[in-house]
Design brief:
Order of helices and strands: HEEEEE
Shape: rod-shaped
Structural class: alpha+beta
Number of domains: 2
Distance between the termini: 77 Å
């Protein structure tokens, strides 16, 4: 009887691990699909007040649309390194 109970507990743990594994794959898959798209897109970010483009994994800031007279250029935007500023 004890062996049967241990086997059932083990089967439950395996089932839970499979479900968690499938959920993890689903989340990772959705995350990858969100990142797929055109590599040349233009964004306007209200948070940083910069307009910029991302091409080949590099950011080019094309415009500043804020009101500040002293502006700090970010090192990265959306995880990409800022390589060019053309205002």
């Amino acid at each position: 009887m004890r062996l049967r109970l241990n086997k059932l507990l083990w089967e439950d743990k395996l089932k839970n691990a499979r479900v968690l594994g499938l959920l993890l794959l689903l989340v990772l898959g959705i995350g990858l699909m969100v990142g797929i798209g055109s590599d040349d897109e233009v964004y306007a970010s209200e948070v940083t007040n910069f307009q910029y483009s991302i091409s080949n994994g590099e950011v080019t800031i094309t415009n500043y649309i804020g009101d500040d007279t002293i502006v700090e250029i970010p090192v990265t935007i959306e995880g990409y390194t800022v390589h060019h500023v053309t205002l």
